[in-house]
Amino acid sequence: MSSVTLTDLHKAFDGNPVLHGFELEVAQGEFVSLLGASGCGKTTVLRLVAGLEEPDRGRITVGDRVVCDASKGTWIPPEARRIGMVFQSYAVWPHMTVLENVAYPLKVAGVARAEREAHTLTILERVGLAGLEGRRPAQLSGGQQQRVALARGLIMEPDVLLLDEPLSNLDAKLRIRMRADIRRIQKESGFTVIYVTHDQDEALAISDRLVIMEEGVILAVGSPDEVRDHAFLSPEAEHEERA
Amino acid sequence: MRRRFEPRFWIALAAVFVLGILPLVLVLSRGVSSGAFWETVTSEEAVDAVLGTLQLSAGTTLLALLIGAPLAWLTTRTDLPWRGFFRSMLTIPYIIPPYIAAVAWINLANPEVGALNSLLGKGALDIYSMTGLTWVMALSFYPYVFLTVRAALLSADPSLEDAARMSGARTWRVLRDVSLPLMRPALIASGGLVFMVTASAFGAPALIGNAARLDFLSTSIFDALTSGLGGMAQASSLACVLLALAVIPMFLRARHHAVLTGKASRPTRVRLGRARLPIHLLTLAFVAVAVILPAVAVALTAFMRVAGDFSLSNFTLENFAVLERSDSGSAIWTSLWLAAAAATAAVVLGGLVAFLQVKTRRRGRHLLATLTAVPLAAPGTVLALGLILVWTTPLKLVNTVWILLIAYLAKYVALASRAIGEGLGTVDDALPEAARMSGAHGLTLLRTIWIPLVLPALVAGWFLVFMPCFSELTMSVLLVGPGVDTVGTRLFEMREYEAPTAASVLATVVLALVVVTNLLLRLLSRGRYGV
Ligand SMILES: Nc1ncnc2c1ncn2[C@@H]1O[C@H](COP(=O)(O)OP(=O)(O)O)[C@@H](O)[C@H]1O
Ligand SMILES: [Mg+2]
């Protein structure tokens, strides 16, 4: 279990700055949501933490390990960061079964077959996929694929789990159920979560703390109660005021 | 839809059938019914030819996959510098006829006077060998693999690979466990295509294989036919075998993984790290050797008195006098107007086929489209044999330019119909309907609405047919003898009679024309067609 510290992160794509001096501290075991409109840089923050992108400037610390420091040239590649990630598109491998998908991190780590299958089955049970281990992803519903992606992110018992709009492709009812499941599993295991969403109800319901972003800048940080009444969370209210 | 007699459908079907299907049917029936079928196909020469074709096709396929797939991955998924430049350069061989590449590599690696052998020592490289021929074929056909695998990687969700990295897999592991399985359908499809076109190829195998005493099915068919008496029966029997071989890969089907939903993100570029510079240099070297060197070899040889001698005094413009000699000069004109005529006819017939398929719901329209595409997939030698069977009696068209026009139209009409079909697919049905409500019908509707709306596709279709027709060799050498000359037949004869400098002049003309037409096509279609 680890804290995550982002210090003075800068990132531009093709000369267009996305992040300029982004700072954030996430405590060990905390559940923090990044909330903001599409295109404001939420995914970029996650990918920097994951190591899938390199910052132009800045430092990222996970626990007591500096995983990236642009000024010193420190760079730990994503596969060595012990960070789990759940992608918006699920990224469930179509050529592997559910079992193979979820067991993959253990396989890469060299865990013996019997052990990794036993472990995988318990994780599948925890995310509510018991009995589906032999299926191909194409035979699963969106919600089930989502659970496969979650299970795969959890199985290597990461210090930090990153979730990028994990529920945005699901219908409303399922979204609320999955939300509760994710929170429950996180509380049980105690890992640190950075959760990206553009759905404010979701962010308010699930997080210890919210980070409200706009165009790569943090507008506000606080607990759900602290930010609930923030003007930009309810643009309708703002409208009425003006009228 | 009202059921009624539609003459345009039956005209299209009849044209497609007589042009491209009847010849193939006749070859098959002639070949199989020939009393000597088994005798022919089990003869020592035939078995050698089959083995030669299999060896060449398998070797070429393997080499093309080994070249094309890594280059596709490097230019889509890594931080290799100059990716856009590599993409353009590596696609160029796609538009250059393989026999031009053969002429180039003969200039370069002919054991006696090859330019590379002048540098490396006489006999260091021998293009007149199975290895040499496989090299030439693979360099001509790897773009099929390169382009298909690139398209597969570009359409695959890169998070699939990112997810593997987040699971702890390193670059090689990600490649093996995720990227390669994602590429598999593309590898199988493009590998099958390379196998087919290699087995069907005639020009390069004949130019290189003759001197190397290598036999292939396509060249044996040519030899049988030109040997005279009884040749047709023997050639048809061999053609049946070639047709069967060329069709095998079509039955190879990859188990297709359903593409899962999800927004594709931008690819994370794999950091090549310390390997970046060496890989960059290696790719540059490959472009230089595979793409630039052959073109330079052809162009330079065209200006040399004696091939392979690089002293300044050896360079001359004299060779281009060959263009003024009536045979070569007229060959270029013949090829130009034949290609233009075939392209125009293909746009008309292909346009009709495409219209019927895309804009009507008539029964049989898909069959029509399939039949149109069959001759394109059939080996040129086999189609040419069939055309001889169809057009010798009562119409004596063989050995005239008209049989070439028919052959080019039959083989390449599918290229036009495909392009026009894509264009028609984007036209909203309300546009012609509005015109009908305004009173337009028939030819007026065609002239004022359809043609203007799909003009870009018509132009693209015209060029797509024009290009291969201008440089066509395989069918041409079988269908016409002395007296009728095209660029392809002239070049073939020159090579046979060992006139490398004159052949290089013609090859340069073909190269220049192909490159210019391709650029024109690219401009006119705003980058949609052409490379
Ligand atoms: N690989 C990339 N190349 C170029 N631009 C990018 C890339 N990734 C993200 N961007 C741009 O950066 C901005 C922020 O993107 P992103 O972090 O995905 O936003 P969010 O996840 O909040 O919707 C967007 O304008 C996006 O177009
Ligand atoms: Mg995003």
Largest interface, chains and sizes: A-B, 36 and 29 residues
Q: Total number of helical segments of chain B?
A: 22
Poorly predicted regions of chain B: 258-263
Uncertain stretches of chain A: 236-243
Characterization of this structure:
The complex is a heterodimer of chains A (243) and B (531). Helix content of chain A is 35%, strand content 27%. Chain A has 243 residues and is an alpha/beta fold. In chain A, the strands form 2 sheets. A 6-stranded mixed sheet of chain A has the order 7-8-9-3-10-11, with helices on both faces. In chain A, strands 2-1-4-5-6 form a 5-stranded antiparallel sheet, covered by helices on one side. In chain A, strand 1 (4-13) and strand 2 (16-26) form a beta hairpin. Helices cover 72% and strands 0% of the residues of chain B. Chain B is an all-alpha fold. The longest helix of chain B is centred in the N-terminal third of the chain and has 34 residues, at 44-77. Chain B has helices spanning 7-33, 37-41, 44-77, 83-91, 98-109, 115-120, 130-155, 159-166, 171-200, 203-212, 217-226, 231-247, 276-301, 326-359, 365-377, 380-391, 401-425, 430-437, 442-470, 474-479, 487-496, 500-524. In chain B, 47% of the residues are buried. The radius of gyration of chain B is 24 Å and the shape is globular. At the A-B interface, helix 1, strand 7, helix 2 and helix 4 of A face helix 8 and helix 9 of B. The complex binds adenosine-5'-diphosphate and magnesium ion (MG). Magnesium ion is lined by residues 42-43 of chain A. Adenosine-5'-diphosphate binds at residues 13-14, 18, 36, 38-44 of chain A.
Brief characterization of the structure:
The complex is a heterodimer of chains A (243) and B (531). Chain A is an alpha/beta fold and 243 residues long.
SSE layout and pairing:
The complex is a heterodimer of chains A (243) and B (531).
Chain A: E1 4-13, E2 16-26, E3 31-35, H1 42-50, E4 57-62, E5 65-69, E6 74-75, E7 83-86, H2 98-108, H3 113-126, H4 142-154, E8 160-164, H5 172-189, E9 192-197, H6 200-206, E10 209-214, E11 217-222, H7 224-227, H8 235-242
Parallel strand pairs in A: 3-9, 3-10, 7-8, 8-9
Antiparallel strand pairs in A: 1-2, 1-4, 4-5, 5-6, 10-11
Helix pairs in contact in A: 2-3, 2-4, 3-4
Chain B: H1 7-33, H2 37-41, H3 44-77, H4 83-91, H5 98-109, H6 115-120, H7 130-155, H8 159-166, H9 171-200, H10 203-212, H11 217-226, H12 231-247, H13 276-301, H14 326-359, H15 365-377, H16 380-391, H17 401-425, H18 430-437, H19 442-470, H20 474-479, H21 487-496, H22 500-524
Helix pairs in contact in B: 1-12, 1-14, 1-15, 1-16, 3-4, 3-7, 3-9, 3-11, 5-7, 5-10, 5-13, 5-22, 7-9, 7-10, 8-9, 9-12, 11-12, 12-16, 13-22, 14-15, 14-17, 14-19, 14-21, 15-17, 16-17, 17-19, 19-22, 21-22
Bound molecules: adenosine-5'-diphosphate (ADP) and magnesium ion (MG).
